[in-house]
Design brief:
There is one protein chain. By secondary structure, this protein is α/β, with parallel strands linked by helices. It has one domain: Rossmann fold (3-Layer(aba) Sandwich). It is built from five helices and five strands; from the N terminus they run E-H-E-H-E-H-E-H-H-E. Strands 3-2-1-4-5 form a five-stranded parallel β-sheet, sandwiched between helices.
Length: 142
């Protein structure tokens, strides 16, 4: 019998707000015997607003270090669940969806910060964009 979810992508951003999504993704993976892909996307627009006083290379390395810690945290929480990690760069929703398609992911688990009103309209929502564009199932966790 085929596994319900053989491959689960857990999108992480290292924030405490994202922890419920990580925990739920791991809970599902444990019950389904899934392989987890812990994915962190370094948002390319961050570099558009970096102060010219700070060298871009230093900023990039700090963000990359934070991304590494985020995926390592997922691996640590996973225990005996097999975890692959990936650090991607670009627009978060697009990179998550692209990675999911390329790796034949069965389920994307992503957290939401619950932005409302004008903030959501202006900033958009990574989770909403993933829902609209992903070719697989998506679980949003608040």
């Amino acid at each position: 019998m085929e596994k319900l979810f053989g491959k689960i992508l857990i999108a992480t951003d290292s924030s405490e707000n994202n922890r419920p999504a990580v925990e739920e993704g791991l809970r599902i993976a444990r019950s389904c015997g899934s392989v987890v892909y812990a994915v962190y996307v370094i948002d390319s627009k961050v570099f558009d607003s970096v102060s010219t006083d700070i060298p871009v290379g230093d900023t990039y390395q700090l963000i990359r270090d934070e991304a590494g810690k985020a995926v390592d945290k997922v691996r640590a929480l996973a225990g005996d669940i097999p975890v692959e990690t990936a650090l991607l760069e670009g627009k978060p929703a697009a990179e998550i969806v692209k990675f999911a398609a390329e790796n034949e992911i069965d389920l994307i688990v992503i957290g939401t910060r619950g932005k409302r009103g004008i903030e959501r309209l202006l900033l958009g929502s990574v989770a909403e964009n993933v829902i609209r564009t992903a070719g697989c199932k998506v679980l949003i966790v608040k």
